[in-house]
Amino acid sequence: MIGNPAVFIDSTVEDQALELRSYFKSLGAEISEEKSPKGIEDDLYKIIGVCDTCFKDGQEQDVESVLNSIVSMFVTLQIPISRAENLILNFCDQVKKTSSFNLGHVGLKVLWLLFQSLSEDCTMRYHVYFYLIQIAHDTDQIKAVFKDVDHLKQQFAACPPSNEQMQKLLRALHDVLLKSKQGELAAKVMIELLGTYTSENASQAREDAQRCIFAALADPNTFLLEPLLSLKPVKFLEGELIHDLLSIFVYEKLPAYIKFYQEHKEFVNSLGLDHNQNLKKMKLLTFMQLAETEKEMSFDLIQSELQISENEVEFRSFVQETTLCVKAFLGRRANILCHFCRECIS
C-alpha cells in the first residue's frame, strides 16, 4: 500500500495560489499571475484547470510537489462539500492524465494523499478512490491501493457508497485485477459484486454473472468453482449454456466437457475461452475428483479417465504439473497424491 500522507507545504493558501499561478504562467498556461477577484476558491478552480501543463516536460519530483500543493489547498480551505465536489472531480480528471506522460505512479501518490486527507465521512472519498483504481489499471499498480475486499470495506465504513456505486467500483477492480494476473483476488471481488444483488434484482446482474463465470473458467489457477453456483445472479442463468458449462466444470469429468464442446463449439469459442486450456483444466479437475473418491489410482485408470496417451513424456509432464495444483487444492489429502506422483515420475 502507498505510505502515509506527506507533510503539507508551510505557507498560506493565498501565497500558494500566487506561486502556482506564476509557475503555470511560466510554462505557457493561459492563466493570470494575479489572484482572482472572486476569491480563493476561484483561484483553485483556475489552477486546477491548467495544472496538467507541468506534465509534459516536468520532472517527477516537481510534478508531485506541485500537485501535492494543490491537495494542501483543498485541505487548508476546507471548502463545504457542496462546492468542493466539482473541484475535486476536476482535479482527479487532471491527475488521471499523468498516466499518459509516464507519471502514473506520481498520480497514484497524489490521489492517495488526497484520499487519505479527506475526512472518513466525506462522500468524495469514493470518487477519488475510483480514479485511483483507473490509474492503477493504466500503471499496473493495483497492489498500491487495493489489499483485499475486507480492507476496501473498512476504507468506506464511515460513509458507505450506494449499492450502485459499489457495484461500479467492484467491476473496475475486477478488470484491473484480471489485467494484473491476480485471478484469486479478482474472483473474490466478483463474488462480492454478485453478492450485492438480491432475488428481486438478480436478473439485472446477468452480464456480471456471465463475466464472473468466464473469468473463473478462464483463470488457469482457479479450481474452486462450486461456490459460484450458489450466487443468486448465477442461479438466474440456470438452463442456459454458460450455466451448463460451469456445472460441468464443477460436477462432471473430462468426457462431459469434450461432449459439450463438440455440441457447442461455436458457443465456447464465442466466450473467448481457449479449448486447449479448458481441456487442461478439466484434466486437473478430473484428477482431483479421482483423488477424492479413489483409494488407489492405477496408471490405467488415470490414462483412461484423463485420456492421456501412453507417451511417457506427456504423462510425466502432466503429473509434475498436477502435483502443485492438487497440493494447494486438497491440503493433507494431497500428500498421498504427491507420493503417488513421485512414484510415477521416479
TrEMBL record:
<dbReference type="InterPro" id="IPR000717">
    <property type="entry name" value="PCI_dom"/>
</dbReference>
<dbReference type="GO" id="GO:0005852">
    <property type="term" value="C:eukaryotic translation initiation factor 3 complex"/>
</dbReference>
<protein>
    <recommendedName>
        <fullName>PCI domain-containing protein</fullName>
    </recommendedName>
</protein>
<feature type="domain" description="PCI">
    <location>
        <begin position="185"/>
        <end position="346"/>
    </location>
</feature>
<dbReference type="InterPro" id="IPR045237">
    <property type="entry name" value="COPS7/eIF3m"/>
</dbReference>
<comment type="similarity">
    <text>Belongs to the CSN7/EIF3M family. CSN7 subfamily.</text>
</comment>
<dbReference type="Pfam" id="PF01399">
    <property type="entry name" value="PCI"/>
</dbReference>
<dbReference type="GO" id="GO:0002183">
    <property type="term" value="P:cytoplasmic translational initiation"/>
</dbReference>
